[in-house]
């Protein structure tokens, strides 16, 4: 277990916890905080046991949270995308909004959701387009620009990739 915390191995998160006797703090095996001396560490397999023993959760890796420590960041990004899908959104805009570098944002978001902010935004736009196709008489071109696509070819290509049909076919099927 000591080797796993030194390596910050994420695959062991949730399987055991490391508790530091001197600080009375417990962490995930993947925590990036400075590593304690080996003699000050106890290992626990259960979060209830570690808390009963008087340890508090690390504020950096948040082991008491079922999700990953980046869930707040992911929520902020998805909220931003949902609220700004009509605008032209660049990765730098999202990164500025959440306060981290574009590269780090892209990597963390993909790590947590298995997709990039760009593909997530595209899904939001296509979902909105499907709603408009089903519930309005707007033309495909109007819908394309209404949901934030900058080019019709990109709209049609994305729509077909995500729905396996064109916008017109979708309107006919759902109409």
UniProtKB/TrEMBL annotation:
Keywords: Activator, DNA-binding, Methyltransferase, Transcription, Transcription regulation, Transferase
Pfam families per record: Ada_Zn_binding, HTH_18
Source taxon at top rank: Bacteria
Gene Ontology BP annotations: DNA repair; methylation
SUPFAM superfamilies recorded: Ada DNA repair protein, N-terminal domain (N-Ada 10), Homeodomain-like
Keyword Metal-binding: no
Cofactor: Zn(2+)
Any one GO molecular-function label of the UniProt entry: DNA-binding transcription factor activity
Domain HTH araC/xylS-type: 75-173
Database matches in InterPro entries: Ada-like_dom_sf (IPR035451), Ada_DNA_repair_Zn-bd (IPR004026), Homeodomain-like_sf (IPR009057), HTH_AraC (IPR018060), Me-P-triester_DNA_alkyl-Trfase (IPR016220)
Gene3D superfamilies: DNA Methylphosphotriester Repair Domain, Homeodomain-like
Designated name of the protein: Adenosine deaminase
